[in-house]
Backbone:
């Protein structure tokens, strides 16, 4: 079996890793550089606190890979298991938190509902008077996406995967039923992927990739790196003020990452021509909102630098993980959680490509046809 993977972000590389590990011949075509897309712009957050079972399970299946990554891949990804703290300002949000935690704990995540006072034990300067409840999971944390790409790339190269950078795939043509002819792939995979019921060959030029219409919008999201006025503990959790959309976490050497999406701050953009720099006005607002949640980001906070990247957003904020056409597997549209879900996604994609059943997560809820059938999902913990 020869699988062509389109895209060398963390998802494509995790797919290559899983497929090569199961004996497939794999080629990765990356238009630019490995990890140069959304992956290199991510905040590195890893959490089990989602509101749908499939997202929680993708996390639970991925966390062990991040935990043992340094040993298994030989690259330190700066994995820090300092938890995620979600904050609720309203009773409505708190009620949703309670439902989420019931589902998360049933799935096996160690999440807990906390009072604001209990939450302050994890984040001492939390403005407890502004909140009615919080949730915390000690299974959550952060890691460095750049290092993860490096680890995956090293491992798949060692496993014989053919990685071609600066190689855009501009079309995929089906070349027959059940096999490759002239070195073309049996299957194509991962910004898009594919399997062996039909062959697919990357071709140039023109036309939508394989003619498959994916309901994914490229949405610009920003991150600021700041020097907080206050002493944000290095082991503070990634904190999300869900009712305002603001989030922050400690970064290295006393700095912090601040992010969030506010009204009009995250428009759909042309993915080939969007502003990759940070808007200072946005950064000021994001920092003020962070300070509104916890008193670390007062007026002496210095905005050091930042960047913008793309969330690949589907209508229900869940990925598409499906064999969209015979031989064409899609793993795309991960919104703000594709980094953390990459390890389990790789296994799910390998199953779809190879017709196996090894992945512990049932990803059928992430089928492409849910948007037509109306069986879409609802993720309430969107950050
Ligand atoms: C600001 C920001 C913060 C984020 N924070 C988090 C977070 O905390 N936690 C988390 O889990 N996720 C986070 N994300 C989301 C995460 O970055 C993505 O979901 C994840 O990186 C998706 O990985 P990918 O491999 O699918 O996509 P990408 O990294 O975008 O990789 C796709 C690759 O495909 C290549 N490509 C596209 N078309 C072609 C073609 N035709 N031929 C060849 N190559 C092609 C691109 O060049 C690109 O390198 C964040 C994203 C942003 C923007």
Residues:
């Amino acid at each position: 079996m020869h699988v062509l993977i389109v895209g060398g972000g963390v998802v494509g590389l995790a797919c290559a890793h899983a497929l090569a590990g199961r004996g497939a011949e794999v080629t990765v075509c990356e238009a630019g550089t490995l990890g140069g897309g959304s992956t290199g712009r991510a905040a590195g957050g890893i959490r089990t606190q989602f509101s749908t079972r499939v997202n929680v399970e993708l996390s639970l299946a991925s966390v062990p890979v991040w935990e043992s990554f340094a040993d298994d891949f030989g690259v330190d990804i700066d994995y820090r298991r300092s938890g995620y703290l979600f904050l609720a300002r309203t009773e409505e949000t708190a009620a949703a938190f309670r439902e989420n935690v019931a589902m998360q704990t049933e799935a096996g995540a160690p999440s807990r509902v906390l009072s604001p006072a209990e939450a302050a034990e994890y984040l001492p300067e939390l403005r407890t008077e502004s909140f009615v409840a919080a949730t915390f999971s000690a299974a959550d944390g952060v890691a460095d996406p750049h290092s993860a790409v490096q680890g995956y790339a090293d491992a798949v190269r060692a496993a014989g995967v053919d990685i071609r950078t600066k190689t855009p795939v501009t079309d995929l043509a089906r070349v027959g039923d059940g096999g490759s002819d002239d070195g073309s792939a049996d299957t194509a995979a991962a910004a898009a992927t594919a399997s062996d019921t039909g062959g697919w060959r990357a071709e140039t030029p023109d036309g939508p990739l394989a003619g498959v219409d994916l309901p994914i919008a490229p949405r610009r999201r920003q991150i600021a790196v700041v020097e907080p006025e206050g002493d944000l503990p290095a082991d503070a959790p990634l904190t999300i003020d869900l009712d305002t959309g603001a989030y922050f976490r400690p970064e290295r050497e006393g700095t912090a990452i601040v992010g969030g999406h506010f009204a009009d701050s995250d428009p759909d953009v042309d993915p080939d021509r969007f502003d990759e720099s940070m808007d200072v006005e946005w950064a000021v607002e994001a920092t003020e909102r962070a300070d509104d949640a916890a008193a670390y980001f007062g007026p002496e906070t210095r905005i050091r630098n930042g960047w913008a990247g793309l969330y690949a957003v589907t209508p229900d904020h869940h990925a598409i993980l499906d064999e969209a056409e015979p031989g064409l597997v899609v793993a795309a549209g991960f919104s703000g959680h594709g980094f953390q879900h990459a390890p389990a996604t790789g296994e799910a994609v390998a199953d779809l490509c190879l017709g196996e059943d090894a992945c512990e997560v049932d990803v059928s809820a992430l089928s492409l046809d849910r948007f037509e059938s109306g069986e879409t999902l609802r993720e309430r913990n969107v950050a």
The radius of gyration is 21 Å. The chain has a mean pLDDT of 89.
